[in-house]
Amino acid sequence: MRPLKSKCVWNTIPVRKTVTHRFYGVNNLLVWKKALFIYKYNLLLHFNDFAVMLSDSLAANFLMMKAKILLISVTALSSLLHSCTKSSDTDSTTKGNWIRRSSFEGVARSEAVAFTIGNKGYIVTGYDGTRRLKDLWQYDPEFNFWQQKAEFPGTARNNATGFSINDKGYIGTGFDGYNKLKDFWEYNAATDEWTQKADFGGSGRYNAVAFSITGKGYISTGFDGNYLKDIWEFDPNDGAEGKWTQRVSMSGEKRMSAVAFVYNDKAYICTGTYSGGTGAVNDLNVFDPSKPEGQAWSMLRKISNASDESYDDDYNIVRSKAVAFVMNNKAYICCGENGGVYKDTWEYDFATDLWQSKTPFEGSPRSGASAFSINNRGFVLLGKSSTGQYEDVREFFPDQEYNEYEDQ
């Protein structure tokens, strides 16, 4: 008899607090069928042999031989079960807990601009499924309430982008249903007033990313009829309207609908989609504006299962129209789409350049959501799916255990 061989691989799928373990392997179905057949066959022989007279030495010897076969078979089956069963001591929880906060008070929407000024978060523009919008809302996380502010005076739009510098918020680009836009505006939170600034220096576009570093703002990537990877720097203190200067383009792939996040005065750009034969892109690009032109961009590990090592075996981060935020020295990517609509959450460790799966967003799967960080607190809100637009708001606690009752 040929010995049974099986390579056991466990795929762990977090579903709320419990984890479902599924068994995979090479010809495992055949292995199980063979093992069970041997077990049942020998057991049947064993019980049938009670009718054999023990005084018959030949029959007794034959019975003893089959009993040994039975023992060997059961032992082999037990070993197979043990080798492919995780210990009950294995951690079966996924870290991270989402808690629902006060729902957005404006109309449900997707593809809005989010930025933070001081200890407040802001949402402006977006799309409600029928109309493009231009209202501005402020969120106070300390007291958990929304308040409407001065309406954005530019054209109603969606898929715009924005950032904040000190006590000002900025918004530009986007799509009004007919035109790819490049106007640019400043919001003064202290006076609740808008001021138009110098038009964005690049082409009119939508689905770009934006961020700020050390007093300057940046807009990169997007779509203007072509997928883009250029980057433009805005200095709000250079003249009354500010000034745009083009920097050397990203070394990674062209894209739209990416995410950007900032840590230690460096910007990280990843995810997004590009139709030039690659679909959703898997590179992670880092921009350091303090370095000389031509040296400002570098690339880290891919965000897909692209290496021969095991660290990325479970990576499923590639997507577009996701959100990203930074808190407590980690970055988080959540929701988005890539064939289907996602709600999973991934945590990025800047020190190790590795990603870890966290508790999925506890609202409905969605794309085109918004996110902001306020004093090391991360929030994900709004968005859309095939069923419509969303207005819910949730805060993420990455180090807590999942508790479904806290999100009711």
Could you describe the 3D structure shown?
This protein is mainly β and 408 residues long. The chain folds into 2 domains: 75 residues; 308 residues, Neuraminidase. Helix content is 12%, strand content 41%. It is built from 2 helices and 30 strands. The chain has a 4-stranded antiparallel beta sheet, with no helix packed on it. It has a 4-stranded antiparallel beta sheet with strand order 4-5-6-7, with no helix packed on it. The chain has a 4-stranded antiparallel beta sheet with strand order 8-9-10-11, with no helix packed on it. Helix 1 packs antiparallel against helix 2. The longest helix is centred in the N-terminal third of the chain and has 27 residues. The protein is globular, with a radius of gyration of 29 Å. The N terminus is likely disordered.
- Ends: how far apart? 58 Å
Separate helix tally? 2
* Averaged pLDDT: 84
Protein structure class: mainly beta
Q: Count all strands and give the number.
A: 30
CATH architecture grouping of the largest domain: 6 Propeller
Gross morphology is globular
**CATH fold group of the largest domain:** Neuraminidase
Short recap of the structure:
The protein is mostly beta strands and 408 residues long.
Give the SSE map.
Blueprint: E1 9-15, E2 18-24, H1 28-48, H2 57-83, E3 95-101, E4 113-117, E5 120-127, E6 132-140, E7 145-149, E8 161-165, E9 168-172, E10 184-188, E11 193-197, E12 209-213, E13 216-223, E14 227-235, E15 243-247, E16 259-263, E17 266-270, E18 273-274, E19 279-280, E20 284-287, E21 297-299, E22 323-327, E23 330-338, E24 340-349, E25 354-358, E26 370-374, E27 377-381, E28 384-385, E29 388-389, E30 393-401
Antiparallel strand pairs: 1-2, 3-30, 4-5, 5-6, 6-7, 8-9, 9-10, 10-11, 12-13, 13-14, 14-15, 16-17, 17-20, 18-19, 20-21, 22-23, 23-24, 24-25, 26-27, 27-30, 28-29
Helix pairs in contact: 1-2
